[in-house]
Design brief:
elongated; mainly alpha; 62% helix; 0% strand
Length: 128
């Protein structure tokens, strides 16, 4: 326990290094362009790495790959919905969420909010 705070500081346990699957590293890297640098980097940060080559073992590789695939599905959904929205509405939604462009979505939370906002906007258009 720290004498000043009275709380234990959380320590990260060392991650076991192990063999990597080079084809998974390549697949992970292939998502960079589709997700944009910000979201891609955010996903890598969830694994506490800055590049796909730094991933310590196959278990973490598989998790990162799943997260990348999930991000890609979210981006595909945003693009699909956006194609049916008026351009002004699309950009208004991006502005409302502080997103400059689809290439600059900072994390999963913002991606989820964009999907929800665009879905709602599309539903309102279909009712009108």
């Amino acid at each position: 326990m720290s004498e000043t705070s009275g709380k234990e500081s959380p320590t990260r346990l060392p991650v076991q290094k192990g063999p990597l699957d080079a084809s998974v590293t390549t697949k992970i890297e292939s998502f960079r362009r589709e997700l944009g640098e910000a979201l891609f980097g955010s996903i890598l940060a969830m694994a506490h790495v800055r590049s796909a080559r730094e991933i310590p073992n196959q278990h973490v590789q598989q998790n990162v790959l799943k997260w990348m695939e999930s991000g890609a599905r979210g981006m595909a959904r945003v693009r699909e919905i956006a194609s049916g929205l008026p351009e002004t509405k699309f950009y208004a939604i991006l502005d409302d969420h502080g997103v400059e462009s689809l290439a600059k979505i900072p994390n999963f939370g913002v991606l989820e909010k964009l999907v929800n906002a665009m879905t709602q906007a599309a539903q309102q258009l279909s009712v009108a």
